[in-house]
Amino acid sequence: MTDGTVNVLIVDDSPVAQMHLRRILEDDPQTRVIGMVGDGQAGLDFVRKTRPDVLLMDIHMPGMDGFEATRRVMETVPVPIIICTSTADPRDVAVTFRVLEAGALACIEKPVGREHAEFERMASELRQAVRLMSEIKVVRRWAKPEPNRPASQPAPERKPAANTVRIVGIGTSTGGPLVLQTILSGLPKSFPVPILIVQHIASGFLPGMAEWLSQTTALPVHIAAYGVRPQPGHVYLAPDDFQMGLRSDGSILLTKEEGSNGLRPAVSYLFRSLIERCGPSAIGVLLTGMGKDGAEELKQMRDAGAITIAQDRETSVVHGMPGEAIQLGGAVHVLPAEKIASMLQSLVSNSSERNGTP
Known about the structure:
Rossmann fold, five-stranded parallel beta sheet, elongated
C-alpha cells in the first residue's frame, strides 16, 4: 500500500465480472486494480512477481481453481485473500469454507448489476472489505486441536458459584468461521449444553457454513428456527437478517428488531438475551471480528456473574470485537483460539460436577 492506496489483484475467469469488479473498486479513489487474470495459476504467478495488498478471488475457474490458488499463495507468498463469489451457485457456497480453511480471510457475495436495487449496498460492502483486509499484513494461523481431546487448561480462576452452566453464547465476525471450526472440533458429541452463535457473514452463505461445520466437527449444527428448544451438544446459528435470543420458556426467539449499529443478527442482542434469561448460568465468548458488536454486552454478562471469554490478539484475524471487550474489562479469560474448547469443557464439567448435568 502506497500513499494510502490499496492495490488489488482480481482473479476471475469471466472478463465481464473482472470489469464489473474493477469499476466498483475504482469508484473508491483510494483503491487501484493493478491486475486482472482468469485463473488461479495466473494469479499465483502475478503475486510472485508483484505483490498486491489484497487478492480478490473467484472459486470455480479453469485449471487451478480458487481453493488450490489460495492454498498455494498462503504457503508461498501470503497476502490477504477475499473470496468473491455468487451465492446463486451452490457449488460456490459449499466450497467457500474449504477456501477459508486454506487461508482466505473473508468471503463476500459478488455484487449484482448496477440496475439492481441491492447494488449500492453490495458494492459498498465489497469496497469496505477490501480496505479493511488490506490492513492485515500477517495472516495469523494456528494449529487445530485433536478432536475431542481432554481439557488441558487449569481450573478456571473464577467459577459460576452454585449456578449450573445452561448455555454458551458465541459472537464473531471477520475470521470467525475457521475459529468456530477450531472450537467446535475440540468439543465432544457429549458436550452437555447448547451453543448459540451469531456470525456476521454475507447473506446466503450461512447454509454452506452450517453444512461445513456439521461435516468437520462432532456436533450437529443448525440454522436456528423460532420456538425450537436448544438441545445439549447442538449448535444453533442465527439466521440471515434475524436477531436471535431466548424466550421466557427457554426456546429460541427470532425477531426483526433493529440491533446495535444496524446489525442483524447482532452479538449484542444475543448476549443481552442471555443476561436476561440465564444470568450467571451462561458463558459468553467473543471472537475475532471488526468493530465492537457485543463488547459492552460481554462486560454486562461478566457483571451479571457469567463466565466470559475473549479471543487473544495473536490468533484473531481482526482484534476489534474481542479487543474492545478486553479494554472494557469484559473478559474473565483471554485465550488463543485453540485453547477455548478445553476451557469450555472445563467450565461446563466443573459446573456439572457441583450441580448435576443440566
